[in-house]
Specification:
The structure holds 2 protein chains of 2 kinds. Helices cover 0% and strands 57% of the residues of chain A. By secondary structure, chain A is an all-beta fold. The chains are: A mainly beta, B alpha/beta.
């Protein structure tokens, strides 16, 4: 699955259950079919317009990485 | 449909009150409101309460009769409304409908939240429940993160800057410093606002509203009866509630709140006014970007011009259209379930000329905009001198 970053942020103040992950990058990805998905970013930080692909799904959370 | 007037207002101070429970706050605001209108609790025909997450924050459910009974409002319909941060705006909308329809004459509307007994990570988790927990919540989206992503996109499309975001915080703190009931009565500088602790890039702690305890209440009745209770009734000129998708990723364009635009157009039409006629407003600045987007969605400025509008000082206390003279959610505080009704209280005080040090010169026609979640609920209310 591939897509383009529509928007993103880096979360420094996480909810209780994600405390160990912070800071983490979160993004809304526009997929090839035009639908959008809220996902986590693994690896390098991404910016709006970057092409990304699904790297893995962990604990039901999709992780995308820079292509 | 009958015309409706606000005949009483009451608020607690907003803040972190370790020694106060939810009910005592709501009762204080309700009784202050009834005292303002000189109406006995026994005359109230229905009680509408806005509260977002009492069961999660303090473990208490069945809140409306729980609070009403303690005020002496008994044996009448008492109902809680939950619409995230627009809970009491929604309660007010439905209370308005019940009076306008002719069903009741005297209806009390309250809003309350008790948040500060939980830790910040727990508060963050409870607030995240106003989003789509199966989608964005699962991925680790907090409310600051959702609005940070709105800010990023707004900056990308319209060139909105960090300084423009910070200008909202600086202005609202300057106003809140003049409000004796505000949570954080502290003036902040642009430099401080730009160098706050990061919460979710590009938002820092100074871009985020406060976690507060507090309550507010208003009393409404048909306009034709208003002068029985007050010499200064405030007329509800227009009101609308609308909705949109809960998840941010299901919205076509996240730089605008479609529900706010639609509620505003309906409310303007009902009031027979345009955006240009609105002299001042209390807007839902849960995050600095939210106030900027609201000024655009309400039609105060063109799309994308909300940033320059605030940075140029047009919305400060002595500007052409003062926004958040109370200090807004940023400085006055944001006990989420109380916010919608508190905004109405603050506009009523301005129209009456009772806003003290923060009183503005042109104060005949004001607007409130109350937002739930990342735009899934919007309530816009236009209030004017009777």
């Amino acid at each position: 699955m591939t897509g383009v970053i529509y928007t993103e942020t880096v979360v420094f103040a996480p909810p209780e259950q994600f405390a160990a992950d912070a800071p983490y990058q979160l993004a809304i990805v526009t997929l090839e079919d035009g639908k959008r998905l809220t996902a986590r970013i693994s690896g390098d930080r991404v910016a709006i317009g970057d092409a990304v692909e699904l790297a893995e799904t962990r604990n039901n959370i999709p992780f995308f990485s820079k292509k | 449909m009958r015309e409706v007037a606000v005949i009483g207002v009451g608020k607690t101070a907003f803040g972190a009150f370790a020694d106060r429970d939810l009910r005592s706050l709501a009762v204080e605001a309700g009784l202050a409101c009834l005292a303002d209108a000189k109406v006995s609790p026994s005359k109230i025909e229905a009680f509408y309460l806005g509260n977002f997450a009492g069961p999660s924050f303090v473990g208490q459910n069945h809140l409306a009769p729980y609070i009403a009974g303690a005020m002496g409002v008994e044996h009448v319909p008492c109902t809680r409304f939950e619409a995230a941060c627009a809970s009491s705006g929604s309660a007010f909308f439905h209370a308005f409908s019940s009076v306008a329809s002719g069903m009741y004459d005297l209806v009390l509307v309250g809003g309350v939240e008790k948040m500060t007994s939980q830790t910040t990570p727990k508060v963050t988790e409870i607030l995240a429940g106003a989003g789509d927990m199966a989608g964005e919540g699962r991925a680790g989206a907090t409310f600051p993160a959702l609005f940070a992503m709105i800010a990023r996109r707004h900056m990308h499309q319209f060139g909105t800057t960090r300084e423009q975001l910070a200008a909202v915080a600086v202005k609202n703190h300057a106003n809140g410093a003049k409000n004796p009931q505000a949570h954080m009565r502290k003036i902040i500088t642009m430099e401080q606002a730009l160098n706050g602790k990061p919460i979710a890039d590009p938002l820092t702690v100074y871009d985020c509203s406060l976690v507060s305890d507090g309550a507010a209440a208003v009393l409404i009745c048909p306009l034709e009866r208003a002068y029985e209770f007050t010499s200064k009734p405030i007329r509800v000129r227009g009101i609308a509630q609308t909705s949109d998708h809960v998840a941010l990723d299901e919205k076509d364009d996240i730089t605008t709140f479609r529900a706010v635009k639609e509620a505003a157009q309906k409310a303007y039409k009902m009031a027979g006014v345009t955006a240009a006629d609105i002299q001042f407003a209390e807007l839902h600045d849960c995050f600095t970007i939210a106030e900027i987007v609201a000024t655009e969605d309400l039609g105060f400025v063109e799309k994308g011009s909300g940033g320059p509008y605030v940075l140029e000082g047009k919305t400060c206390l002595r500007g052409e259209r003062p926004i958040n003279t109370s200090g807004g959610l940023k400085s006055k505080g944001h006990p989420v379930g109380a916010t919608g009704v508190a905004q109405i209280c603050d506009v009523v005080l301005q129209i009456r000329g009772d806003a003290g040090q923060r009183q503005i010169a042109r104060h005949d026609l004001g607007l409130t905009q109350n937002l739930g979640g990342s735009g899934a609920t919007a309530v816009v209310t236009i209030l004017g001198a009777a």
